[in-house]
Write a structure and sequence with these properties.
- This protein has 516 residues and is α+β, with helices and mostly antiparallel strands.
- The protein folds into three domains: 228 residues, no CATH class; 117 residues, Chitinase A, domain 3 (Roll), CATH 3.10.50; 97 residues, Chitinase A, domain 3.
- It is 50% helix and 13% strand.
- The chain contains 21 helices and twelve strands.
- It has a four-stranded antiparallel beta sheet, with helices on one face. A three-stranded antiparallel beta sheet has the order 2-1-12.
- Strand 10 and strand 11 form a beta hairpin.
- The two termini are 35 Å apart.
Length: 516
């Protein structure tokens, strides 16, 4: 969709170039661009031709007109806005270069008659008739520039029609600009009946196929258990049953990347040639300590996580105060541990220890949380089958949510409707959850699902309604427009990933326009 809007925006910018640049003159933003050393800066190239910022180029015109367009939406533009202006303007210039070259190679050139007819709306009075007085208000130089811009615009349209058959939604998009601008696209469409004369075609069977994607829609009731509400009592229970994981140690450590260096350093410290503290400040990489060598992540499970072999933890656990460990391999190199105090047995009632237990479960024992809420969900299901979904939700103390009818539409492609999950957080990413979609669209009416883990929730849902909607003519037309948009998006991808393109906008903008 972004690619499609970029392509549409680029064409609109060409049209804006005719209206804003030619008729009203160069804007103050563009004049600012060409002061100082900003002139003639290279932003990249396409097919060997440099895209350079200098007056009277489509790149410069596009910068000015994108700025005008954005200023109509917000008064103050920040650095992010300015970067996007340059980026979109660069893409517009690249497209223009590629399209003009392709059309030129085909031998096409807009005839003088079609150029004159396209320019005519600029010289009409309020009654829609040609007005010589209106024409005389515009200088010959401006008329010449207008003619050149119109020829460029017609070249773009020729390319668009040849490849895609024209975009029927363009008329509505550019209607906001002016009535006569609409004429550029609406009054010159090359169609036979309702079909475009040129370009890619969409078969009726293809349109019908995509329309049928959303023909069946399903609605559900659902309840969800938020795994973030895992009770403190379960945390305490786990901590007490696995208390050795949360014993804490008073340690300092030296860590180096080379084993031979670690062994040499241990020998020097043992022989009083180097102090442990000097080893910390001079040699240690401090991966597992603060700047003074102190191990701050000092629970047993945290220390074990740093070791290459968990069995080596016994060598640390058995240290007496002021004693040194042998060289122990860890995930970042080789370490020498020094015991600076006694081991503290875990006290789960201590807030810091309790938080460590909770963090450990969340990171390492997610299955415990899943199993806990899955059992609660199973109990809910059993009760729902006996007393009904609503009563079971009330009894379980969970909120029942209604999911509006939605189609089977993985990834929410624009050719079909989407799942509205604004009030059901468990379903926010459901459109990309294959397990959920397979289950939801294989259930029978009033079926209740088994517990399903969906992100940070354990969910149960009941199929409450199946709706069938036959595609009408309006929907088929919308589908055809969407498919044309996909074609245009693919063309964008090909163009902007071409080896012919060298995009230096980010680098140039950062080096030349941002404060250093």
């Amino acid at each position: 969709m972004k690619n499609k809007m970029l392509w549409i925006g680029s064409v609109i910018i060409l049209i804006l170039s005719i209206i804003c640049f030619v008729v009203f003159g160069v804007g103050t933003e563009l004049l600012r661009v060409f002061t100082g050393d900003a002139n003639k800066i290279k932003f990249g190239s396409y097919d060997g031709k440099n895209i350079v910022l200098e007056p009277n180029t489509e790149f410069a015109n596009a910068i000015n007109n994108f700025t005008t367009l954005m200023r109509s939406q917000k008064n103050e533009l920040d650095e992010s806005d300015n970067f996007y202006i340059y980026n979109y303007a660069f893409n517009s210039a690249v497209q223009s270069e590629a399209y003009k070259k392709a059309v030129k190679e085909s031998g096409y050139k807009p005839s003088s008659k079609i150029v004159s007819n396209t320019m005519l709306p600029f010289f009409l009075n309020q009654e829609g008739k040609y007005d010589p007085t209106q024409a005389n208000l515009i200088s010959d130089a401006t008329k010449k520039q207008l003619k050149a811009e119109v020829e460029t615009m017609l070249t773009w349209r020729r390319f668009e029609n040849d490849l895609f058959g024209g975009s029927k939604d363009f008329g509505d998009i550019i209607a906001c600009l002016s009535d006569y601008t609409r004429a550029f696209y609406i009054n010159t469409k090359e169609e036979v009946g309702k079909s475009a004369l040129y370009g890619l075609k969409t078969s009726e069977k293809e349109s019908q196929f995509f329309a049928n994607i959303g023909s069946e829609m399903r609605a559900f009731d659902a309840i969800s258990y938020d795994k973030a509400t895992y009770p403190n009592s379960e945390v305490t229970k786990f901590g007490n049953e696995n208390s050795s994981l949360f014993d804490s140690y008073a340690l300092s450590v030296i860590t180096v990347t080379d084993e031979s260096q670690a062994k040499k350093l241990l020998s020097q410290i043992t022989n009083n040639e180097v102090t442990f503290e000097d080893g910390v400040s001079t040699y240690s990489e401090k991966y597992f300590s603060n700047g003074y060598g102190v191990v701050e992540q000092n629970f047993a499970y945290q220390i074990k996580d740093t070791l290459e072999n968990e069995a080596d933890f016994e060598k640390i656990d058995s240290l007496e105060k002021d004693s040194l460990s042998e060289v122990i391999k860890n995930v970042r190199g080789y370490s020498i541990y020094k015991c600076t105090g006694g081991k503290t047995k875990a006290d789960i009632s201590d807030e810091k220890t309790f938080d460590a237990v909770k963090s450990y479960i969340t990171i390492n024992k997610q299955s415990l949380i899943d199993d806990y809420f899955t059992e609660k969900a199973k109990a809910f299901i059993a009760n729902a089958k006996l007393e009904g979904f609503d009563k079971a939700a009330l009894k379980a103390g969970v909120e029942k949510l209604s999911i509006p009818a939605f189609p089977l539409n993985y990834g929410e492609a624009s050719v079909a409707g989407k799942l509205d999950a604004k009030d059901a957080k468990a379903f926010l990413n459901a459109s990309r959850n294959e397990s959920f979609l397979e289950k939801a669209f294989s259930m029978k009416l009033n079926d209740i699902s088994e517990p399903m883990i969906m992100g940070n929730y354990v969910t149960v849902f009941k199929l409450t309604d199946i709706q069938t909607e036959k595609a009408d003519e309006s929907k088929l037309e919308t589908i055809k427009t969407d498919l044309a948009g996909y074609d245009q998006s693919s063309a964008q991808t090909v163009l902007f990933t071409s080896p012919k393109l060298k995009n230096e906008v980010s680098k140039t903008y950062r080096e030349r326009f941002l404060p250093q």
